[in-house]
Amino acid sequence: xxxxxxxxxxxxxxxxxxxxxxxxxxxxxxxxxxxxxxxxxxxxxxxxxxxxxxxxxxxxxxxxxxxxxxxxxxxxxxxxxxxxxxxxxxxxxxxxxxxxxxxxxxxxxxxxxxxxxxxxxxxxxxxxxxxxxxxxxxxxxxxxxxxxxxxxxx
Length: 154
Prior knowledge:
This protein is an alpha+beta fold. The chain has one domain (30-151): 2-Layer Sandwich (Double Stranded RNA Binding Domain). The protein has helices spanning 2-14, 44-54, 124-151, and strands at residues 33-42, 64-81, 87-102, 105-119. The chain has a four-stranded mixed β-sheet with strand order 1-2-3-4, covered by helices on one side. Helix 2 (44-54) packs across helix 3. It starts with a helix and ends with a helix.
C-alpha cells in the first residue's frame, strides 16, 4: 500500500500542470502593440511593479506603438478603531491614471482603481509586508487589465 502511494505521489510530482505565466515572453507575440516610452510619476513601489510588468512590451516593435504616461497613487485609510483608539481595519486604494499617446496625439485616457479591505496585525513588520504584497498583487491585476486594453485599442 505504501509503495502505491509513493508511486502516485512521485507521478504527480513529475508531471506538470501546464501552467504558464500569462504575459511571458512567449505570449507577448500574441499582442499587436509595443511601448516606446513609459513615464511614471507617483507612488514609487507601485511604479516599480508597473515598470517590471511593462518592460516586456518595450523591446518588441509591433504595428501599434504607444507612449504611456502613468500617474499612480496609493492610499491607506483607517476604517475602524477599537476602544483604545488603535486601528483594527484598513482600506488600501490604488489609483492609476494612464494617458496613452500614439504619434504624439492623445489616443485614450484610462483610470484604473482597485481597493482592498483588511484587518490590522499585532506585528507591524507582518502588517507592512502584507501591505506590500497587497500593493503588488493589486498593481499586477491592474497591469493585466491595462495590457488587455492596450491590445484592443484601434
